[in-house]
Design goal:
mainly beta
Length: 182
């Protein structure tokens, strides 16, 4: 017991007594007022005190992205496809300077399930033309905040010519990313 008591006294001596400040952030100001004189009666004396109250806050960057795939066979109505709506995209960031849209192709074109060169295609999203030419092909475009509504329910239009292509399944995966410009 003596050792515990000695350790407690030693701790207080070395580190001091720590008491949290309950008045942190509190400001005060006093003003003493006295009654008036004969020319200025007490009822007309104004005693006032003022202090500012600061209100602050930070709104973080938030981005929203929604991609809808129409899940259609793009060659169902022919091999030469032009401006076929295959889905839509909605994107928004609450940043003053707008946002960047990045589209990345996994295959660099519509890859055939049996191999060979992929079919070249173009996606048009809100007037941004995306034509991947190699695997992991990436296109980045900046959308100014004043034009941000262009990316609300924007159609994704596909143009591809598969005339003369080999029979089989063709596919590509395009990843769309939005990032607020801070």
């Amino acid at each position: 017991m003596r050792n515990v008591f000695f350790a407690a006294i030693l701790g207080l001596a070395l580190f001091g007594l720590v008491i949290p400040d309950a008045d942190a952030g509190k400001r005060s100001k006093k003003r003493m007022c006295q009654g008036g004189d004969d020319d200025n009666p007490t009822s007309s004396v104004i005693c006032e005190v003022d202090l500012p109250l600061e209100i602050t806050g930070y709104v973080p960057c938030e981005c929203e992205l929604e991609v809808t795939d129409n899940d259609i066979d793009v060659f169902n109505n022919g091999l030469d496809v032009s401006n076929l709506v295959i889905g839509n995209v909605s994107a928004y960031c609450n940043t003053e300077d707008g946002f960047k849209v990045t589209m990345t192709s996994a295959n660099g074109g519509l890859a055939h399930d049996g191999g060979g060169d992929p079919l070249e295609y173009t996606l048009d999203v809100a007037s941004i033309a995306f034509t991947p030419t190699e695997p992991d092909f990436e296109l980045e475009s900046t959308i100014q905040q004043v034009n941000a509504t262009d990316f609300e329910n924007a159609d994704v239009e596909l143009t591809v010519d598969a005339s003369g292509a080999l029979e089989g399944d063709y596919s590509d995966t395009v990843t769309i990313e939005v990032a607020g410009i801070l």
